[in-house]
Amino acid sequence: MLYLIGLGLGDEKDITLRGLEAVKKCEKVYMEAYTSLLSFGLSTDGLSTLEKLYGKPITVADREMVEEKVDSVLSEATSFDVAFLVVGDPFGATTHTDLVVRAKELGVEVKVIHNASVMNAVGICGLQLYRYGETISIPFFTDTWKPDSFYEKIQRNRELGLHTLCLLDIKVKEPTWESLCRGKKLYEPPRFMTINTAIEQLLEIEQNCGDRGESAYNEDTNCVGLARLGSEDQKIVAGTMRQLLAVDFGAPLHCLVIAGTTHPIEEEMLNMYKLKGV
Amino acid sequence: MLYLIGLGLGDEKDITLRGLEAVKKCEKVYMEAYTSLLSFGLSTDGLSTLEKLYGKPITVADREMVEEKVDSVLSEATSFDVAFLVVGDPFGATTHTDLVVRAKELGVEVKVIHNASVMNAVGICGLQLYRYGETISIPFFTDTWKPDSFYEKIQRNRELGLHTLCLLDIKVKEPTWESLCRGKKLYEPPRFMTINTAIEQLLEIEQNCGDRGESAYNEDTNCVGLARLGSEDQKIVAGTMRQLLAVDFGAPLHCLVIAGTTHPIEEEMLNMYKLKGV
Predict the structure, then answer these.
(1) Which residues, including other chains, have CB under 8 Å from residue B42's CB and lie 6 or more apart?
(2) Which residues are CB-contacts of B30 (< 8 A; sequence separation ≥ 6)?
(3) Helices (H) then strands (E): counts for chain B
(4) Predicted pLDDT at B248
(5) CB atoms A13 and B15 under 8 Å
(6) Is residue B276 domain-resident?
(7) Do residues A3 and A32 make contact, with C-beta atoms less than 8 angstroms apart?
(8) Residue A36 maps to which CATH number?
(9) Which terminus, N or C, of chain B has the lesser number of Cβ atoms within 10 Å?
(10) Which residues does the annotation say bind S-adenosyl-L-methionine (chains A, B) (predicted)?
């Protein structure tokens, strides 16, 4: 049996009782590294905290490993119970459908244990979940690569009065340019996009697209920035893009919501997060 | 302090360690009755199972109580720790923003403990969460009241190729017609909408709106029905509206997803849920 277990958003205490029970009976425990490196601080003490709680070692599975060794993990799951831990929910922002489909092909039974993910916990900002349109992802721009396909999605959401959840880029285990040239495996340090960078990029794109006579948002558009959502030290600030540009949201992970039209009850809640004295 | 604690979707084991820790230190524990009556089967043993786990009594708070006595609950929270338990996530399908706003007004600190809700757990069907448009709610039709404002939302989502999550009506503690006339408090037994009823109503509305030359979907449109999502005995079936009409999904709660355009990886996952031999 393969248990696909959501860990929630904060720390080791956000696993459910059902999830903990499953981990404890599994012979082998893998943990997806993609977001966990940043949100659980696995480079430092995060991993050992989890190992202590579970009473067994965890193998951190980076993307390479998941892609290259998925069949060997799944073949283990044919003979004993294996846990695959995922930050948030197994089908949240980073989905694991490919793992489930492959398991099915190999005849491995899969049990999913859900948890909170950014996709629902973002509701805490007061903008109601059922009034969100399509979710977008904002990638890091480079000097020569500035994809803007998210722009028209935001525009569509805004025209319909809907809110837009923006997931911000995470770069984990990106091979360095040098390593690509030399065939050696060297990786860039992990990077995550801040709310500030996201807004800068959004405004840059708006300027370009605005020239074409469109306008999806501007510096005065209301947004909510959410950092470390679900953690003890989460930071949520509501304000215009211009205002949020000046806020230091601190450590990762960050995400951003661009508000659509707001209802009175939503506004009351947003007011709680507004910058004071601005 | 007021702890607003999500219980997740299945049973008592779906609370998080953080949530359980908070409940245990609270002097008073309330539980929202709106969805819990149905999903936790509180009329039978569900409540006592929870009380045993928490080691303290739970006061079930129906909507009337939440509306009428919210200030007394909140005033308790100024002098000791109070837990307010919510099925799913506190800001999921049924939001509790009004409670948070009122707490803030009274100077009560609020701590939110997230969990899975239908809004993210629905990702298990394989249709990826970031490709959903606006969520809709389908109310019970009566002979004289057939609101169809959800129709154009589905239509918009489908035109954009997006999936639509349909939340289905729940009627809990509805006063009887007799009680309204006599001024006595008598309530209808709880009712929940099945996937079958939802599809019947959707097709009825399509027929009416189709006459106006529009068409958002039809009997051959692909959908996924999800019953008791997140429970041990959840039932997920993918198929056309016509096919799902004939499926017995069993006990509540039910929800329905109307698929937009699907990607290959989504289709692979949907195939796992398709009816065999149809």
Answers:
(1) B31, B33, B36, B60
(2) B58, B59, B60, B61, B73, B82, B83, B84, B85
(3) 11, 12
(4) 97
(5) no
(6) no
(7) no
(8) 3.40.1010.10
(9) C
(10) 9, 89, 92, 117-118, 168, 229, 254
- State whether A59 and A144 are in the same domain: no
Domain range for A64 is 2-116
List the single range of A131-140, A180-189, B236-245, B254-263 with lowest mean pLDDT: A180-189
CB pairs under 8 A between A and B: 173
CATH code where residue B222 lies: 3.30.950.10
Cβ–Cβ under 8 Å, residues B37 and B7: no
Asked if A101 and A138 sit in the same domain, the reply is no
CB contact under 8 A, A116 and B268: no
Phi and psi (nearest 5°) for A137? -120, 135
Write the pLDDT tens digit of every residue in B162-197: 999 999 998 877 777 777 677 777 777 788 999 999
* Closest C-alpha to B22, from B88, B83, B77, B86: B83
> If pLDDT is split at 50, 70 and 90, which confidence band does A190 have?
confident
Alpha carbon distance A138, A169 (integer Å): 6
Q: Which amino acid is at A56?
A: K
Are A13 and B18 inside 8 Å of each other by CB?
yes
How far, in Å, CA of B252 to CA of B171, rounded? 12
Which 3 state secondary structure label does DSSP give A121? helix
